From TrEMBL:
GO terms for cellular component: Golgi apparatus; membrane. Residues 473-510 are annotated as: Disordered. This is GOST seven transmembrane domain-containing protein. It is a multi-pass membrane protein. The chain crosses the membrane at residues 210-227, 239-259, 274-293, 305-324, 344-364, 385-404, 424-446.
Length: 510
């Protein structure tokens, strides 16, 4: 693997990358990479330009043009290092498939980025400049141009220019120089990366249409739910109010993400305010959804009126999950750093993953206890709906684990982001999966004239007031108590009540 290939890998994951199609450089320093000094200027997937006339000197690219524009790029050096004329400080733009055209080696030795004396003797390059060769697919690529410092000159300005993109691909920009005497040099200015449809990075562009579709889907689900809610409002119980809250939060989240991407696409700069609101609404929605699933699994609102002593534990878990998720989402979507180092990202992702795992374990343990109790009490209507609910959750968990494995495979086999056109599918899948599960829950507990048969009632909820720490029912003592011996007539009466309750449940089933 060449030095430039290693550099690509390292900088893609560990460097400072601006989250947006307007990449600003505010005093970034050059770092040593091999025998060169490098600043990573950006990496983005760009679709090819639409046919038409391209004006390289135009400040505002025309609709349908794809280009990378350099604006007010300057290099500064400290005064103590200005008493000589420097070698070139160069900008290099290349498509990731052409990464092997950067760098070379003499006599099959170690590959270098900067031209060495041995390579210069062979006539392969000019000593002190970046080694590059024309692409076999398009001889005009890669684009390499630069500027040098004159003696006692503190600032060198790179001429403004636009580079048209005529081929769809993942493009990389690096600022490089090969002069070891240029110490303390920094780069300032900005580059603008544009796709044919706007300023959204290519890997993110499909998500704008996706969030528009999801917004419409939530509206359709909301219209159905709110219509049923208004029509049968007398039969509404607390669980249905919780589902209504999740649908409302989902509608706001999808709309905010759509406007966030639309503004990003229009200006090239991510709107921080809208992004923060979208992240927060999404985090609240995911937290509330998990808590609702957990409470339903415990039988809240269906077979028990309250969570009893578990309320504080559930709230504590929800607050912890919200805080961990909010921090992770804000760091990933807001601010200037888009790629965190492996350890920093693991530090943020791991707590969320562990909390999700804890939710799943607690949910299925509670479901097991609730199903056992429903079966023991012969509440067949509620037992049927809980079995469907359990099956839906089990399928969702299995699909989630499978998709996580696919994500790991996808990312481990795409070191250079060459499959960037399909990257949008990964976040989109989680949105589709959560929406599908919400639709199933809405179908199971949709407001109707028979809604109250799924709600908690005092005559059958007595057994569910206890903590769910035990998965078995308390069996009655085999020895009769004093009260029973002194009042033998109570036994048949109790049997009649149980029989009556059983008949009532069977009538509801019919």
């Amino acid at each position: 693997m060449s030095v430039i290939s290693v550099t690509c890998c390292v900088l893609l994951f560990l460097s400072f990358i601006v989250e947006g199609s307007v990449h600003e450089y505010k005093g970034e320093r050059f770092a040593a990479r091999g025998n060169a000094f490098v600043v990573h200027g950006g990496s983005e997937g760009i679709y090819s330009s639409k046919p038409g006339n391209f004006n390289e000197s135009s400040v505002i690219p025309a609709d349908g043009d794809s280009c990378i524009r350099f604006e007010k790029i300057v290099f500064r050096r400290p005064e103590e290092s200005s008493n000589f004329t420097s070698r070139l400080v160069q900008a290099i733009v290349f498509e990731v498939e052409d990464r092997e055209t950067i760098g070379g080696s003499a006599y099959g030795g170690q590959r270098a980025i900067c031209c060495t004396a041995d390579l210069a003797k062979l006539g392969a390059c000019t000593e002190g400049e970046i080694i590059h060769h024309p692409s076999t697919k398009d001889p005009s690529w890669p684009h390499v141009f630069g500027v040098s410092f004159n003696a006692y000159e503190l600032v060198a300005t790179l001429p403004s220019r636009s580079i048209q993109v005529t081929k769809t691909g993942m493009y990389n920009l690096y600022f490089m120089h090969c002069d070891p005497n240029l110490k303390g040099v920094v780069v300032e200015g900005k580059t603008i990366w544009k796709n044919p449809t706007g300023y959204l990075p290519g890997r993110m562009a499909p998500l704008m249409n996706f969030y528009g579709f999801m917004s419409l889907s939530f509206v359709i689900l909301g219209v159905f739910w709110f219509y049923q809610y208004a029509r049968y409002w007398k039969g509404v119980f607390p669980l249905l109010n919780c589902i209504t809250l999740v649908i409302t939060l989902g509608m706001f989240e999808m709309a905010l993400w759509y406007f966030d991407y639309a503004e990003f696409n229009e200006t090239g700069v991510r709107p921080t305010g809208i992004t923060i609101w979208a992240v927060t609404f999404g985090t609240v929605k995911r937290t509330v959804a998990r808590l609702i699933i957990l409470m339903v699994s415990m039988g809240y609102g269906v077979v028990r009126p309250t969570l009893g002593g578990l309320t504080s534990k559930v709230i504590m878990l929800g607050v912890t999950f919200f805080l961990a998720s909010e921090v992770l989402e804000l760091v990933e979507n807001v601010g200037a750093i888009s790629d965190l180092s492996g350890k920093a990202r693991l530090f943020l992702v791991l707590p969320v993953a562990l909390l999700d795992a804890f939710f799943i374990i607690w949910i299925f343990k509670s479901l097991s206890a609730t199903l056992n109790k429903l079966q023991a009490r012969r509440m067949m209507v509620k037992l049927d709906i809980y079995r469907k609910f359990t099956n839906a959750l089990a399928v969702a968990v299995i699909v989630s684990v499978g998709w996580i494995c696919y994500e790991l495979y996808f990312k481990s086999n795409d070191v250079y982001n060459e499959r960037w056109q399909n990257a949008w599918v990964i976040p989109a899948f989680w949105q589709v999966l959560s929406f599908s599960l919400l639709c199933i829950i809405c179908a199971l507990w949709a407001p109707s004239q028979n809604s109250m048969r799924y709600a908690y009632s005092d005559d059958v909820g007595e057994e569910f007031e206890r903590d769910d720490s035990s998965l078995t029912l308390i069996k009655p003592s085999t020895m009769p108590s004093k009260d029973v011996r002194t009042a033998p007539e109570a036994r048949p009466e109790q049997a009649n009540i149980v029989a009556s309750n059983g008949d009532l449940e069977e009538d509801k089933t019919e």
